[in-house]
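quick one before i forget lol
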Amino acid sequence: MEPDVLNDELQIISRKRLMNKVAVITGGARGIGAATAKLFAHNGAHVIIADVLDDLGATLAKSIGGHYIHCDVAKEVDIESAIELALSWKGQLDIMFNNAGIGGHQGSITNLDMDQVKHLISVNVYGILHGMKHAARAMIKGGKGGSIICTSSSAAIMGGLGSHSYTLSKQAIVGVLKTTACELGMHGIRVNCISPHGVPSEMLVNAYREVLGKEDLKAEDVSKLVSERGSLLRGRSATAEDVAKAVLFLASEDSGFITAHNLVLDGGFTSACSNMSFIYK
């Protein structure tokens, strides 16, 4: 390889992809949100963690030189306050990662608890809309464009991967990101989402415990189950860091011509069936 080409590649690898960008991450205290907050900060971003887990969120924010704010995404005023913090701190908002979400009740459509469904939608759907609304306002006023990213799920693509209410909420996100991208593109604002599959978060581990009836199930057990049954890449399941890297891509100018896109991180699971792979042998 020529020296100039090698130097160019090394600069791409070593550069900070979000230098001086300002980001708000909901659900940023743990899991995918926390992994993304760390990666954003490592890449030069000023990060605000918005969550209801005050101790975890405040500790993480301090460790990355960011800010923490208590934020229940179901409450529009809380989201508005998180955006206002970004504007008062750095005078701009460049990245909004609407990541906060909760799981749904596992069970039959015939015994849905509608109060639980309403609560889930208030977090998973209204929370996303609140984030889009107030991020869009700030970005349009700022006049420099921006990137809005939302967390959906493989359950939005393929039936049987989540509860009825959870699936409903995650499919709604894929729909609204497209309409929002249509409106905001003229302002240079890109709107995308990620759909992870099988990341052994606390929420997924709890879901597996409920479905399998195994209270002692651990994150590594879930990872093993996913790698064996839910991925074409056998022996491999997704990690929070895998998802964070995808979010970094969508937040950065590396994806500058990508909008209205749902980036699926599923090891190919929702696109192809490895049970038929014997035909290639």
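fyi The radius of gyration is 19 Å.
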